[in-house]
Amino acid sequence: MNEPKKYFGITLDPVHIGAGGYRLGRVDNTIVRDPATDVPKIPGTSLGGAIREFATVYTMKNACQSKTDEKEKRKYAEEEVKKYFGDENRQGVLRFYDGQIIFFPVSSIQGTVWITTKELLEYWLCEIKDEKGETITIPEEIKDEAYAIKGINSSEPLNFGWLILDTQNINEGKEITLPPELDKFLKRIVIVSDKLFSHIVNDNLEVRTSVRIDPETGTAAEGALFTYEAIPRGTILGFEMVIDIDTRKGDDVKSIVNLIEATFPYLKLLGLGGMGTRGFGRVEFFTLKNNKQSNNKMEGNENDKS
After folding, report:
1. Topology of domain 104-203, per CATH?
2. What is the pTM of this model?
């Protein structure tokens, strides 16, 4: 089995993955959360389902040129995709794990600030260094403060909605150097404790109010007002994928990875989750070229196989 391959994503629109229930004191339509941390997430089933469908569409357009009938193209593409995703008769070789929030945007007096935690940084970025290549040491105990690591004026307290935190520098004011794919987007970053991270995220989700329209009158239907929440635009997500090469030794790992990554433009254009007709769901996924842990292990396993 391969080591997990890490993928990152930027939400271009709010993303709503409905939990299918209600929460006392919250909105009508809530989103899925991690039961241990209460932080919103994107279930692996939602990722796998959307990627599977877009992989089928991609295969129809690029591997069925010899066929003219659309039904035949669809059937052929579905059979090809089943080899990797499986069906009711056989297990697939792909495993999609839940998408996590890595950097969450919050409005502040200094502009938009992205919050994260020590554990998230160390797991997803592996190496945390400054512009000189020196390792930045994050304190083991994170207090109820904001630890500035990029673009923050630490001489003043920082507000996150209703919450105001004192700011602290790390390693004498050294700033983190991010991979280019993230650096151009994330201008201001602070580290907060796990406890505060959950509270700040949940207090700054996007909440919208909608109403059902009566088709006969063209006006709002009586009693049809409802609210729903979503992960806001500008959130940085991460998810992992594993290819179980032991179950299908004849498969080419690189070709499977190429198929998965060929679906990313569809996710950027058509999105995932609910409320798509209301402008929700688009996510731009990518890999970090300089993230050794997320890239080299899978490539190494493929070389070992050959």
Report:
1. Barwin-like endoglucanases (2.40.40)
2. 0.87
